[in-house]
Specification:
This protein is an all-alpha fold. It contains 4 helices and no strands. The protein is 74% helix and 0% strand.
């Protein structure tokens, strides 16, 4: 695959490799794609950061530990409803 980055991004990639943070331009681009993938995942699950996701998960575990959980079938029903609502919004 050949990609044209433009002068600004080529300069950025070269600087990242020269700094020693990455071994090659390919590593820089792969890291950028990993970050884009992570951002997309966070957007899909409606959190703004991995830290927020971790906080929500820990709060959920604490809630379950206090016996505040809901039936599994009810949870899946709610998830399906949310997915359908998101689909309708586009």
């Amino acid at each position: 695959m050949n990609v044209s980055l433009g002068e600004k991004w080529e300069t950025f990639v070269v600087k990242k490799v020269k700094s020693g943070d990455f071994q090659s331009a390919s590593e820089v681009l792969r890291e950028g794609l990993r970050l884009l993938e992570e951002k997309e995942l966070l957007r899909r699950i409606s959190v703004s950061s991995m830290g927020e996701l971790e906080e929500r998960l820990l709060a959920g575990v604490a809630s379950l530990d206090r016996g505040e959980g809901i039936d599994g079938e009810e949870a899946f029903k709610r998830l399906r409803q949310r997915a359908q609502e998101r689909k309708k919004r586009g």
